[in-house]
């Protein structure tokens, strides 16, 4: 692997696509070693981390999260994270593939869960009922029930719908019209996979900087339909969704890779490094160089 690049972690086997597994945090440190678990790496899957004891820190993208017993961390596909070098907490880690969450082709909540996974990464103190659900789910991994996978899926969905999804809706600051559209969508029979398809398309092609027209054509939608789809699920337009993905990747590469700013600009589809600098400053009020320097001084803390 190129030493400049960010290490990528994949699910341990294809069977994990439909049968998730679970680790104790202490087990991960023992099995993989401190250097491995504390190295910033990108996930090719999603994960849930629940802290059951202790106080410490965890790193997600360029943010340092303060964690303690009762903290729930969630990670979406392509996010970068690392455990602390000194283990001061314990709990459990559940890696899973996003498609595991869908309970049917017409799951009305799937898109909201997927959107929330990469936007809301930390619930600092879950409620008692969520804590109970988390512990029941952890125990279910050791069950010999023939319904084990479905029970885990239902519990995981319930946990995410009670924690990160409501916070994501609030953070998105949706208008009343958007909320009405979301409500109508939740009670419709239209497949909820379209927003997931849109997110996947952007994830796979954002570095080519496709236009909204190109994205719409690839998905067999009109620009108006696609913008409505994006606003109904994320509260922003497709162009803003694409810019958001480019921006977070720029931040990840600046924080964790050794590529030059010019190389990062080229990877992200900018014709010139100065164009990326203008884009980055417009969205963050700081230059890529200053952002990288801040990250080198120590990961930014919320």
Detailed description of the structure:
- This protein is α+β, with helices and mostly antiparallel strands.
- It has three domains: 20-172, Jelly Rolls; 176-201 and 209-237, no CATH class; 242-301, Homeodomain-like (Arc Repressor Mutant, subunit A, Orthogonal Bundle), CATH 1.10.10.60.
- The chain is built from 14 helices and ten strands.
- It has helices at 25-32, 34-37, 110-119, 128-140, 148-162, 164-172, 176-186, 193-205, 212-219, 223-234, 238-256, 261-267, 273-284, 288-297, and strands at residues 8-9, 23-24, 41-43, 46-60, 63-68, 72-75, 80-83, 89-96, 122-123, 300-301.
- Strands 1, 2, 3, 4, 5, 6, 7, 8, 9 and 10 form a ten-stranded mixed beta sheet that branches.
- α4 (128-140) runs antiparallel to α5 (148-162).
- It is globular, with a radius of gyration of 20 Å.
- 29% of the residues are buried.
């Amino acid at each position: 692997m190129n030493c400049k690049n960010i290490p990528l972690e994949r699910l341990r086997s294809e069977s994990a696509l439909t049968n998730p597994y679970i680790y104790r945090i202490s087990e991960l440190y023992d099995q993989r070693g401190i250097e491995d678990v504390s190295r910033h790496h990108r996930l090719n899957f999603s994960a849930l981390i629940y802290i059951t004891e202790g106080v410490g820190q965890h790193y997600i993208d360029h943010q340092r999260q303060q964690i303690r017993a009762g903290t729930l961390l969630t990670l979406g596909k392509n996010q970068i994270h690392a455990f602390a070098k000194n283990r001061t907490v314990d709990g459990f880690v559940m890696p899973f593939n996003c498609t595991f969450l869908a309970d049917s082709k017409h799951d009305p909540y799937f898109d909201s869960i997927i959107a929330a996974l990469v936007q809301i990464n930390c619930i600092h103190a879950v409620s008692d009922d969520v804590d109970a659900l988390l512990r029941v789910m952890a125990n279910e991994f050791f069950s010999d029930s023939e319904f084990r996978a479905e029970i885990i899926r239902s519990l995981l969905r319930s946990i995410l719908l009670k924690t990160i999804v409501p916070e994501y809706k609030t953070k998105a600051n949706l208008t009343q019209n958007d909320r009405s559209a979301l409500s109508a969508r939740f009670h419709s029979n239209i497949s909820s996979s379209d927003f997931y398809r849109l997110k996947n398309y952007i994830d796979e092609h954002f570095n080519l900087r496709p236009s909204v027209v190109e994205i719409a054509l690839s998905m067999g939608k009109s620009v108006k339909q696609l913008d409505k789809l994006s606003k109904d699920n994320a509260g922003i337009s497709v162009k803003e969704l694409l810019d958001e993905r480019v921006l977070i990747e720029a931040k990840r590469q600046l924080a964790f890779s050794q590529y030059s700013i010019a190389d990062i600009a080229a990877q992200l589809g900018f014709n010139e490094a100065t164009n990326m600098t203008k884009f980055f400053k417009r969205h963050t009020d700081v230059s890529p160089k200053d952002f990288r320097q801040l990250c080198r001084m120590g990961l930014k803390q919320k």
